[in-house]
Amino acid sequence: MEENLTVLEEFKRESCEIYNLGFNENLKRLHHDHLPVFVTIILLNILSILMFLKKLVWILKNTPKAYITKTVFLCGIYLVCNLMTLSIVVVPRSYFFCDSVIHITFVLCAYQMFNLFLRYVDGESNLIEFHSERPKKFNFSTPPCCCLLSLCFSKISITKRRISITRILILQLTISHILLYIALNIIKINDEETFNRIFIYTIPLIVGPILIGVWGLNIMLRLFVDAASDYRLKEKYFALQLVLIFCKLQPALFESINQIFFNDFYCQQVHPPSVYVSFVISIQMFLLGIWAFKLYKCPLRI
């Protein structure tokens, strides 16, 4: 009995080493039953690249110059996510680095979205003028900080200072997470044991700025949605938020379900769970990229 348990533990230990496979080791373990996963992800990446090039040509020809750079940036995030998922499939041990690239791209896009929405309304002065003509004052109490702020204030007027505060709420997410993820990747490269030991203590540093940043993004949407009603801002904002949900929350949810209900079932497969999750994310990002392209046509075609 003890011998059987020892064999089982050894099997689980060896199977879980697939988390740290490099490129050559991963190819050696490739089984013909798993070729469809690899081939599908590669095809989705090729299609994503071709689709993005088509988008780029259209944007350069048809989008007003003031919107071009930011529109390209916001449409490109879906291609970046697809390329990173392919990298995870090819080299499973690159998971954290690729996840960091996706996350940094997201926080950069969040700030670029604020700037693009501001361009849609032709600047802060026009936005303030638009809200000054409305009978109701603006409500800053939005999720996830709505309960706290409702105790402090409910509805206030729009000023340049308050627009700048909204910008800072989003910008702090961009700056803090770029610095944090760069530092974590440096630590992981130099000493993975230290990284595994300290990572849990960085979770508040990750979650805190995200909550503040999402609050800023929700305020941003309320600021601009009526002033630029022809630009489908809600859909564009939702398309960006889905990147965070699919690429960050979804893998964490899958991992939690695996640990609680399936007793490391995925860890006993030929490939690590990151490969299967990456397969799902590749499909989602490809479909999101198609939708985003239609959304960002709206400055000229609604």
UniProtKB/TrEMBL annotation:
Subcellular location as annotated: Membrane
The entry's keywords: Membrane, Transmembrane, Transmembrane helix
Cellular component, GO, one term: membrane
Residues annotated as transmembrane: 35-53, 73-95, 101-121, 168-187, 199-225, 237-254, 274-293
Pfam families: Solute_trans_a (PF03619)
Top-level taxon of the source organism: Eukaryota
Lipid bilayer topology: Multi-pass membrane protein
Name of the molecule in the record: CSON015300 protein
Organism: Culicoides sonorensis
Taxonomic lineage from the root: Eukaryota, Metazoa, Ecdysozoa, Arthropoda, Hexapoda
